[in-house]
Design a protein that fits this description.
The protein is α/β, with parallel strands linked by helices and 147 residues long. The protein has one domain: Sugar-phosphate isomerase, RpiB/LacA/LacB (Ribose 5-phosphate Isomerase B, Chain: A, 3-Layer(aba) Sandwich). The protein is 48% helix and 16% strand. The chain contains 6 helices and 5 strands. It has a 5-stranded parallel sheet with strand order 2-1-3-5-4, sandwiched between helices. Strand 4, helix 4 and strand 5 form a beta-alpha-beta unit. The longest helix is centred in the C-terminal third of the chain and has 14 residues. It is globular and about 45 Å long.
């Protein structure tokens, strides 16, 4: 499994922790930056992560900024991306199971390291159900992108 990851300065530290965790699990990680705590703009990192997911270069994306909000808003502007801002394990599982989300967002100043790793594992470890009712809803979301 290949994971694309990106963060702004507010998510830099947590990004490093998640990268180590993913590599320990044998996952390939594509790090799209940032590479320091210097102030930067989250959309600049959301775009390449989402492009990697859409192109098939990565299976999933992880985005981290201070709250996760800016990253999730940016990601969800990109057609084909379904990004969920996560803060609890139930939602991390449910969004994959029901929404077939392909990107997750985290708040580096909101969730601690332990919870963040649980969220990553829950998100990446849950398969989409493929149920017709969920597919119908995803198709309606895709139609919204064409409006």
């Amino acid at each position: 499994m290949t994971i694309a990851i990106g963060a702004d300065h507010g998510g830099f530290h947590l990004k490093q922790v998640i990268i180590c965790h993913l590599k320990e699990q044998g996952k390939e990680v594509l790090d799209f930056g940032t590479y320091s705590c210097d102030s930067c703009d989250y959309p600049d990192y959301a775009v390449p992560v989402c492009e990697a997911v859409l192109s098939g270069q990565a299976d999933f994306g992880i985005l981290i900024c201070g709250t996760g909000i800016g990253m999730s808003i940016s990601a969800n502007k990109i057609p084909g991306i379904r990004c969920a801002l996560l803060g609890d394990v139930y939602s991390a599982k449910a969004t994959r199971l029901h929404n077939d989300t392909n990107v997750m967002a985290l708040g580096g100043r909101v969730v601690g390291e332990g919870l963040a790793l649980e969220l990553v594992d829950a998100f990446l470890g849950t398969e989409f159900s493929g149920e017709a009712r969920h597919m119908a809803r995803i198709n309606k979301i895709a139609a919204l992108e064409k409006r």
